[in-house]
Specification:
This protein is mainly beta. Helices cover about 0% and strands about 50% of the residues. The protein contains no helices and eleven strands. It has strands at about 5, 10-15, 20-25, 35-40, 45-50, 60, 70-75, 80-85, 90-100, 105, 110-115. A hairpin with a 6-residue loop joins strand 5 and strand 6. It is globular. It starts with a strand and ends with a strand. About 30% of the residues are buried.
Length: about 120
């Protein structure tokens, strides 16, 4: 399956912004629906946002509505997660998932986001 590499994480203060990137290194990103998930220490991995392979349909978890925006540039083989107005509870490792079908998918290695209060 596709090899995905995330970047863009870091440490920001409450109210700050980050843009995460997810690059498909070995296959066309256009063949995959992309989802972002996150996992905080001691917690289950949870869904954050999704975008269909054409880019026309997006979906968000209730807790990020209005603060995060998922997008993609298939020409650059890259998907993005723009995160604004970050809160301490957004602190987690963020993972990109590329889904070709319901059972054929790949995960990236994750990028750490830390929001200080």
């Amino acid at each position: 399956q596709v090899r995905l590499v995330e970047s863009g994480g870091g440490v920001v203060q409450t109210g700050g912004s980050l843009r995460l990137s997810c690059v498909a290194e070995d296959r066309p990103l256009s063949n995959y629906d992309i989802q972002w998930y996150r996992q905080a220490p001691g917690q289950e991995r949870e869904f954050v946002a999704a975008i269909r392979r054409s880019g026309g349909i997006t979906d968000y978890a209730d807790f990020v509505q209005g603060r995060f925006t998922i997008s993609r540039d298939n020409r650059r083989n890259t998907a993005y997660l723009q995160m604004n107005n970050l809160k301490p509870e957004d602190t987690a490792t963020y993972y990109c998932k590329g889904s070709r079908t319901a059972v054929l998918y790949s995960w990236g290695q994750g990028t750490q986001v830390t929001v200080s209060s």
